[in-house]
Structure of Arylsulfatase:
Amino acid sequence: MTLAIRSAMLLLLLCSVCRLHAASPEHPNVLFIAVDDLRPQLACYGKPEMHSPNIDRLAASGVLFERAYCMVPTCGASRAALMTSQRPNRTQFVNHLTWAEREVPDALPLHTHFKQNGYETISLGKIFHHPTDHADGWSEPAWRSPKRGYQDRASERQAVQQNKQQWPGKSNHRGPAFEAFDGPEENYPDADCASRAIEYLEKYAEHPEQPFFLAVGFLKPHLPFNAPQKYWDLYDHDSIDLPPNYFPPQGAPQGAVHNSGELRAYAGIQPRGPVERETARNLIHGYYACVSFADAQIGRVVDSLARLKLADHTIVVLWGDHGWQLGEHGMWNKHSCFETSMQAPLLISAPGDTLVQPQTRVQSMAEFIDVYPTLCDLAAIPHPPGLEGTSLLPVMRDPSLPGKQFAVGRFGAGDTIRSDKWRYSEYTSPRGDSTGVMLYDQVADAEENSNVAAVQMDEVHQLSQQLRQRMGKSPKRSDPPQ
């Protein structure tokens, strides 16, 4: 072998080593996908009627948490709790207008911690409720699409005027609650967000030595249920009907069931009373269409990881910020302590961790405050002090471990705890006096139709004690029910 050939081979070897090192950064990348109002209405969660192939494929590539729960079923508070790994209480993380930087100013948010550990951090779409919340933790200003959700502007304006004339007493007048439009998909904010995310991934593929934390927040299936017609066409409208429990649950405390105020502002929705059956069916159809539309955008982004050869070194997390009622107990939206509000999807794909196997399903409890420490462990960066969640990595590697036995959350005057069999909720006055409790057997009564607190006092007492041990610090409360 001549010296020239040996030199050329050595150069090729060095180049290969350099490329291998560049494509394998010390810390894996993170693609952090948030989906607004996404309940576990997905085929991978046992809903075969749903067309969600991309999320289902993501679930098959990693870990699906069958019982993952938000901390507060409203967007701003839920996102603030997840991003800071701090529990809510009666005065902290209360509603959709929550600012994490104002309510827990000493907490180090997830994206800031990753930025301090060498990551480029990017926010696209809706991550925090307020795009300027903890702005200094992003490498660039948070971006949101300027495009509008309604595509038929004339119909939107006409519906708003009709709404004002028909129900002038409404506090707010929005456009239709749903819209199917046969127009370009790229005109929708979520499609625009996916395109923007792909542009960033293409940039990162050219500079693989720079680890990234790319947060991509999709708006759908949040109201209004606006999606291109082709996603409506995926579902047979005649097969869609109201849930079997389209009525208030028996014996629920005052304040447990709400009037679906978020929905009532939209045109065509009466201020009070049950939503008319055909309108309700259209709402459910629209929600399904929006889930499939969001799924398609998620597929575009995740497919780009593979196309750009980033998938093997990128952790992918997908979470819905809370659940959503689709007419269960006569309610729409979230904003309750029922399972339908508290449970949301959580999927994590960790290709760099050889101990985390694909097609893993975890049945133990997961709380959204656990996402922060889990990502720290997967990315091999230390936990900052003060996190209130615990890492899910052990159960990701071995789902037979017991994991968490309880998931705790709250909304309004209610605090709630989920165990393997039960969901128990306490309602209190501002002074902390008990105003009612509810207990549902999740095995015998998964739809939570019958409050059995009065006949299961031993369970009430035990779960009340567990709730008080685990709930966020709050003003002084009364003694637990006896």
